[in-house]
Amino acid sequence: MNLMYKALLAHFHAQREEALAVIHLYLSQPVGVADHSNILKELVDWTKKLSEAEEQLECLKRNVNFNDPPPQSEQTQE
């Protein structure tokens, strides 16, 4: 597997894990995050980050495959 592709996947997996950890912390121990006066807004923001990371991972899985030949252009040149 291409090293840059592996790094890209690791990046988005790390973003996903960070978002999950923060969401879990906010939901399970809201007292531990007393410096945030608007926990709901923070939860919304971190949920968006989680969604974006998962969307990026799915996008890569759908569109990038190093085992298949590159797709042919739909327009053929004659």
Would you mind describing this structure in some detail?
The chain has helices spanning 3-28, 39-63. Helix 1 packs antiparallel against helix 2. The mean pLDDT is 85. The chain has one domain (3-63). It is mainly alpha-helical and 78 residues long. It has two helices and no strands. The relative contact order is 0.15.
Summarize the structure.
The chain is 65% helix and 0% strand. The protein is mostly helical. The model has no long low-confidence stretch (mean pLDDT 85).
Topology (elements, then pairings):
Blueprint: H1 3-28, H2 39-63
Task: Give the key terms.
2 helices, 65% helix, 78 residues, elongated, mainly alpha, single chain
**Percent strand:** under 5%
- The helical percent reads 55-70%
Instruction: Give unreliable regions as ranges.
Output: none
Radius of gyration: 19 Å
Helix and strand pattern: HH
Question: Which outline best applies?
Answer: elongated
Number of domains: 1
Largest sheet features: none
Question: What would you call the structural class?
Answer: mainly alpha
* Amino- and carboxy-terminal Cα gap: 35 Å
The count of DSSP E runs of length 2 or more, i.e. the number of strands, is 0
In round numbers, the mean pLDDT is 85
Count of helices? 2
